[in-house]
């Protein structure tokens, strides 16, 4: 029986014999098993049982495994007949796969073989591949500050990054597996156990802000103020109606004094906001009646007819129309 192709042979000793190692490796998802064969090859016929075979999973064989029965029959002369190849031993070695490839060794020695006249030795190495690895990537999905990619190894649990991205006007909820997800598959720092690569997408909800309408001395449906909820970057929408006795409503403004920004139905909301009713007031005339003082109106006679008039007041030496 001939040694398999690919057998590694040691040096020829005494012009007569040598030994070799043949290694095959099979791997599962988590480990690799090497099957190692020790072979003897003689140039001439040999019959021997008074020897000692050493072999081990190291670069130098140190473990004795007793004697082996060697019998070859072909006298090859100046050649080497494959008929003189004899398998002496077989063993296996199983090693767990890790996060990087590993180099392992096998070696053998054969001593005291008849007619060889020396120690035959050989060593070889074999590789355990690293565990399969997978990449978990993060997509901020409209935001910024997504964490960097992580490596996940087969069978291991990966702790996802606790870094949270940010996005103006939105609240980060967690990670989904699609850019369109509205529900969370993984929280920051959660365990990821799938043996697969993945891209995780940030899941966002729009912030909702309170817009408060302050009647600024008037009323809104009998109340001093009302509020409505508006999602980030939505228009303010329908504005309430404010009233104030003896005053005319002008606008809603971000300043109670009317010096801020005018608010309209189309105003975009990006934060909590209070807007104030701005009023224009006119002159007020009171007339005393039997029922008490009553609000009245000024009339003047013009061209023989009574016309509704307007009061003027003197302010710092100047007459002003009695309106604000």
Portion of residues within helices: under 10%
Question: Could you say how many structural domains there are in total?
Answer: 4
Report the top-level CATH class of the largest domain.
Answer: Mainly Beta
Number of helices: 0
Task: Summarize the structure in short.
It is built from no helices and 26 strands. With 324 residues, it is mainly beta.
Q: What attributes does this structure have?
A:
324 residues; Immunoglobulin-like; mainly beta; 26 strands; rod-shaped
Written description of the protein model:
This protein is mostly beta strands and 324 residues long. It folds into four domains: 8-128, Immunoglobulin-like, CATH 2.60.40; 133-206, Immunoglobulin-like (Sandwich), CATH 2.60.40.4270; 209-281, Listeria-Bacteroides repeat domain (Immunoglobulin-like); 285-321, no CATH class. 0% of the residues lie in helices and 48% in strands. The chain has no helices and 26 strands. The chain has strands spanning 8-9, 17-27, 31-42, 46-48, 52-56, 70-72, 85-96, 102-111, 120-128, 133-139, 150-153, 158-159, 170-176, 191-192, 198-206, 208-214, 225-231, 247-253, 262-263, 273-281, 285-289, 292-296, 299-302, 305-308, 312-315, 318-321. It has a five-stranded mixed β-sheet, with no helix packed on it. Strand 21 (285-289) and strand 22 (292-296) form a beta hairpin. The radius of gyration is 48 Å and the shape is rod-shaped. The N and C termini lie far apart (117 Å). 22% of the residues are buried. The mean pLDDT is 92.
